[in-house]
Amino acid sequence: MTKRRETISIDDARLTVARWGDGPAEIVLLHDGLGSIEQWRGIPAAVAAETGRTVVAYDRPGHGSSTPAPTGPWPADWLHREAERFDRVLDTIGAERPLLVGHSDGGSIALLLAATGRPIRSLLTLAAHSWVEQLCYDSIVAMRHNRAAIVAGLARSNDHPEALFEAWSGVWVSDEFRRWNILSILSAVGCPTLVAQGADDEYAPPRHAVDTAAAIGDNAEHLLLDGLGHLLHHQDPDRIVGLIADFDTSSA
Hints:
- The protein is α/β, with parallel strands linked by helices and 252 residues long.
- The chain is 37% helix and 18% strand.
- The chain has helices at residues 43-51, 78-93, 105-114, 134-144, 147-154, 161-172, 207-216, 232-235, 237-250, and strands at 3-10, 13-20, 27-30, 55-58, 99-103, 122-126, 193-198, 220-225.
- The protein has an eight-stranded mixed beta sheet with strand order 1-2-4-3-5-6-7-8, sandwiched between helices.
- Helix 1 (43-51) runs parallel beside helix 9 (237-250) and helix 2 packs across helix 3 (105-114).
- The relative contact order is 0.15.
């Protein structure tokens, strides 16, 4: 499946978009907090081939080749701001009622957008956050002590790796963000939703997925994937492609 790239402009941001397929955007992928289009690896092409649908992914500002690069930690409401921007991204790429697939912070952004009532066919989150777990906070504090190695890894797929790491890790360990919690608004998510999480996620215990799905309501289910951690789509890509394809069919 051929990948085509383009650049779109949303206010001061220039965002890199990748598309697998020739039709309207039907499945849209949102990467994690340190992710990018490239971090989806072979998932988009495989999902497009399996489902026959057009798959789109994009780099949020400061990720991959998208601009502007951040200057210091993101503000405590950055996920909400990115959900507002994502709403406009969907308009720009012509996604009318897509299936959203969000990993980690990308899953949180997808949940926030779905809670606004925008028409969405269905929503699949992979290791999404709905509040700040102590486990997550502690893990990111530890990452900040290993900054050099992580930044070196980010440099392989991001134009501004140091700025990205500081923006993301800085807000996650900030006092203001420790109070972030979106459980109270999730009942507004009206589309069919699957909250998936690795049973061995390094950033959240299994109850995180259970409580997130419960907060959404009867239109949501949770799924714990044995043997997988936070980067579940890297650890078992075939399993995740199958999960996305099966959910695409069941929620059509």
